[in-house]
Amino acid sequence: MNNEVVRLKDVFLNLNRIPILEGISFSIEKNDFLAVIGPNGGGKSTLLKIILGLIRPDSGEVKVFGRKPEEARNLIGYLPQHSFFDLNFPVDVFDAVLMGRYNGIFKNYSNKDNEAVENALERVGMLKFRHRQMGKLSGGQMQRVFIARAIVRNPKLLLLDEPMASIDPEMQSSFYELLSKLKEKMTIVLVTHDVGVVSAHVDKIACLNRKLFCHGPPEVAAGILEDVYKCPVELIAHGIPHRVLKEHDKK
Fold first, then answer.
1. Most buried among 61, 62, 97, 236, using CB within 10 Å?
2. Strand 211-216 to strand 59-64: parallel, antiparallel, or no bridges (unpaired)?
3. Could you tell me which of 108, 84, 6, 18 has the C-alpha nearest to residue 48?
4. How many CA atoms within 13 Å lie on the side-chain side of 153?
């Protein structure tokens, strides 16, 4: 049985003649929890958009569930880096997630859609807030609602671009616990700058700075990160500091 969810082979992308991705090749397996890390401008968000089929590479091959990315979008849930939402817009949590079941202007929502929304909200721990106005939620609660909207179609692949950006540090632990539970039902790819903490929760790490420097378990990534970030990085593996890399050259 083929457990391969995503495969990229020798992917190159230039934007305005500037290299964004160079020779990217790796695969993502079923139920992987993968963190994509690297410096700003390293191509992390662009990589997610290529997997979604929103951007086509200049060369190379991309397959998602054995298909072209645009043909597999119904199997993908996506939380972009910036989820713009007017806090004054009068919509409650339930209806915000229901929008994720939208099937066209002439199609009404069904009982099945309503059940899917309740299930998604329950999975992210927000069902009791289903009648609360979105503008009255905390940043962490709102991110949970956005994830519920991303998974309301029961995707097999969940792509998250910097989901911790608007979450208080004390809430991040419970958020990672949520993602660990979701991983039982789907493959998760998480773009993050949270290098130290994320390594205690994910199965694999991909270090990306235009080129792919590493793709494997967090312990393997420890020896690669200094080359990617050009600075010292502390990696936490299974809750324990695994290695602290040497100090910057301050010249």
1. 97
2. unpaired
3. 6
4. 16
Among residues 85, 81, 61, 62, which one has the least CA distance to residue 73?
Answer: 62
| pLDDT, tens digit (0-9, with 9 covering 90-100), for 57-99 | 999 999 999 999 999 999 999 998 866 666 677 899 999 999 8
Residue 82 gets which letter from DSSP?
A: -
Helix, strand, coil share (%) of the chain residues, nearest 5 = 35, 30, 40
Distance CA 168, CA 95 (A): 25
State the average pLDDT over residues 104-119: 84
Instruction: Report d(CA 39, CA 154) in Å as an integer.
Output: 31
Judged on CB neighbours under 10 Å (0-12, 13-18, 19+), 142 is: buried
Confidence of residue 112 (pLDDT cuts 50, 70, 90): very high
Residue 237: band (very low, low, confident or very high) from pLDDT cuts 50, 70, 90? very low
- Beta-carbon contacts of 244 under 8 Å, excluding residues fewer than 6 positions away, are 232, 234
pLDDT bin (cut points 50, 70, 90) of residue 166 is: low
Alpha helices in the chain (DSSP H): 44-52, 93-98, 111-123, 139-151, 169-182, 195-198, 218-221, 225-229
pLDDT tens readout for residues 183-231: 989 999 999 877 766 777 888 988 888 999 888 887 766 666 666 555 4
225, 245 in Cβ contact below 8 A? yes
Residue-level pLDDT at 8: 97
Beta bridge partners of 158: 77, 188
Backbone angles phi, psi at 234, to 5 degrees: -95, 125
- Residue written as token pair 């602290």: 244
Gap between the Cα atoms of 61 and 157, Å rounded: 19
